[in-house]
Design brief:
The complex is a heterodimer. Chain A is mostly helical. Chain A contains 20 helices and two strands. The mean pLDDT of chain B is 87. Chain B has a two-stranded antiparallel ribbon with strand order 1-2. In chain B, a hairpin with a 4-residue loop joins strand 1 and strand 2. Classes of the chains: A mainly alpha, B mainly alpha.
Amino acid sequence: MTFQDATVLAPFIAAILVALAILTVDFIFPGRKVPALIATFMGLALIAVLVLITGQSTFEAFGGAYDVDPLTTFLDLLFVSIVALTMAFAPDYLEERGLPVPEFAALLVFAMSGAMLLAASGDLLVLFLGLELMVLPGYVLAGYHKTDGYSTEGAIKYFLLGSFSSAIFLFGLAFVWGITGTTNIAEVAAYMGQVAAGAIPMSPGLGLALAFMTTGVAFKIAAVPFHYWTPDAYQGSPTPVTGYLSVGPKIGAFALIIRLFAQGLADLAIDWNIVFMVLAALTMTLGNLVALQQDNVKRMLAYSSIAHTGYMLVGFAAYGAGNIAGMEALLFYGAAYTFMNLGAFAVVAALQRRTGVTSNLSTFAGLVRREPAMAWLLTLFLLSLTGIPPTVGFFGKFLVISAAVEVGGPLTALAILTVLNAAIAAFYYLRVVVYMFMRDPAGELPRLRHGRLLWAGLAVSTFLTIILGVFPNLLLEIVGVAAAAI
Amino acid sequence: MTWLNDLPIVTLVTFLPALGALVIAFTPTGRPNMARYLALGFALAAWVVSLVMLAGFVAGDPAFQFTESLAWIPTFGINYAVGVDGLSIVLVVLTTTLTWISILASFGPIQNRVKEYMISFLVLEVGMIGVFVAMDLFLFYIFWELVLVPMYLIIGIWGGKNRIYATIKFVLYTLVGSLLMLVAILATAYTYQSGHGGSWAGAFDVQALADYAATGAFGGTFGLIAFGAFFLAFAIKVPMFPFHTWLPDAHVEAPTAGSVILAGVLLKLGGYGFIRFALPLFPEAAHSWAPLIIVLSLIAIIYGAIVALVQPDLKKLVAYSSVSHMGFVTLGIFVFQQQGMQGAILQMVNHGLITGALFLLVGVIYERTHDRTIAKMGGLGGAVPVYAAAFGFFVFASVGLPGLSGFVGEFLTLVGTFAANPAAAAVATFVMILAAGYLLWMLQRVLFGELSDFLKGLGGHLTDMRPIEALTLVPLGVLVVVFGLWPGLILDLIGGSVDSALAAVSQAAPVALGLWR
């Protein structure tokens, strides 16, 4: 490891150190949340600064195994925001249930370090390492409420299917290594270029490798028909964890898809893109149709997160068909989805501050009288998830659709399917609004008190949901640079 | 008034209500009157500004006036571009007028959650005005969708018994149409962009797109499909048969003021969209689609009238009469005749004034009786003479009595239709008899005869109109008379818009139907 390697790696190293620091702080002040939270947020700020400093231009470390480019920078900052927002929303919920905050923070930061590794990987092994480092803390987090049977059940399902899919994915990587003789993504890409040009024949092994890798990543992003673990894992997990799981590992898995498919296997796009198009169509349609039938808001949001995966896949399919705007759309949507979905989960979690409250639709009845601020904020996030302007969610959909329409052909059909799905989604998102505003509460409940940190996090999500919807150019330029880096 | 051109007056009139909504949001919750008067104040301010704009408007000039343009999303060449032409300004003034009237009319009936109600109403006004002044397709779409949310809340929170069903139906219908239109907007912008060497500049600019469309760029199969998407969005809004089924539910469940705005302005968004966007962008496809649209319009005119004839509910009757009246609007637009289109626009304004007033009147009686069943009414003429006079006046206006404004719009539409398609004109004229039938029969059952037992049972609750209620109706009545006697007031304003919309269509030939395959 040279000095330059170390500087390029600084954000990643810092992430590991921050996680350790949080654990140390907890050791010094056992069971106190404030010191741990201070350590967490200061650590995250430090990581963000390091990312911005090292991400100024393109770097390579460890002989191309670790690459930093604008895309890495963008994704890293997104991961930091995800963890920061989750940490703003989680403490209220955790404390009420007697769950420790410091370990929670440390696990999240460990997971984030894995995602950062993923986003910067230039080598298949590093890619897999990052993936595992990202998902392993996720399994623990899903079962974080260890006295709750559902939490444990969800965690076990998540763990079993997660490991299973990781193995499938690894199997695909092994095939690629066996055929190409290298694990370096750039060299793999060069080999695939020759395959695409006809210089090297397409072998059955390569086909199998593609199938295994596609299946593996489809599991990770919870694309239909590989989504069965999602609803149980999401519903069982503590709500702040659900919020995190629906965003963090998902964006991470998309980073994996970008690094592997858009870079390593770019020249075989004609072979894999059709699969992604079918996955996109199935994922958004089925996710929405099943979400339609849910009476539990948390479970509904879980299925709707499947649908949003579908929309992002439309963007990716547009990119696979040769339109760079598709990648911009995917990245923009990822960021938009982060802010609005975490915001929605934050409100659901905040309302569960009173233990024993399920997130059943009926518990939202008449919410506007009890907690007007929460009701209006949830309405905003749900409208954004629906894609009503002027919110960031609308512009995300706008970009995805426009990228697909620009390609034309079957992707136009996919764009039309996307908007029809948005209309279906409107029904179940608005149903929550109906309950909050238009139905009377079942009984009188006292108002809850919410922590300042929660309000601060909600303020940030709200601000970004609106401001990026009205002035999307702020984000559009950033994702433009990031997408151009591929 | 050249100083007007230095002011961002269009932005001012659009966002004054938004400012009002913001101010009201910060008032204390327990002070409903504060919210009421603030809302009325801001609505009146927007109205005054729109009148100033009208006064400064040069009627003969067909170009957009008071234009403003700011780069907004340069990556896609999207601008914040607003301005008004004759058609826009007429509809903007209609909107600002009906909004303050509706807010005033809500003072009595709306008693719970007044603050949220007033905020919703002002946001609704922003969306409606925005649609009429947007000169950028993207901006237009934003405002178009913005209208949806407050209306959803107004029907869903302050509506009648079946309000949740009605409001969700309203939103889903509108959303499906508008989302498909979004795809068409994007496809159109891409066609423009790829025809201009990949440059996005102007790809969402309404004027640039229309100029490009004049070269036949959006013709062929693409035009047919894209027009279809626009058509669906606008047809749902108008609403045209067979996309009208959301309307009776929404009207019946909406609070009175919501119905007024729904009938008065929201339905006009569809007609405006046809004239401003669908015709200039896809003139060839418009020709190909016109026969179908004319037939659907005729069905709407007949069907709306027949269904209105048998309605037992007063409000539902007025709602179905809207379907019939709006049929004249689409008919007038798609015969591609000068008089036809002028008539269609007049009909839009008149329908806004007259049907708005009728909904207000239904609201007045509902306030007292809490019932709208026609069969339970009767003899109101003797009991509440002022109310009866007003009711009779607006019903006659709706029938199309010469001298009142309803007549002029329908007459011009029929003249234009006759020149283009005598058979269609004959059918539509015949229906005017039906209209007289259902309206006058209703009038007879409600106003004349003995006071019904149901109304007698109300005793002292059956009072005549209060001054505040009369105040909401007087401006509408005055305008109905003025436009009835002097339609030139509006015709002068809209002449340029009509001519340029028709010029675009007349130069185009219909897409050969072989392309449908």
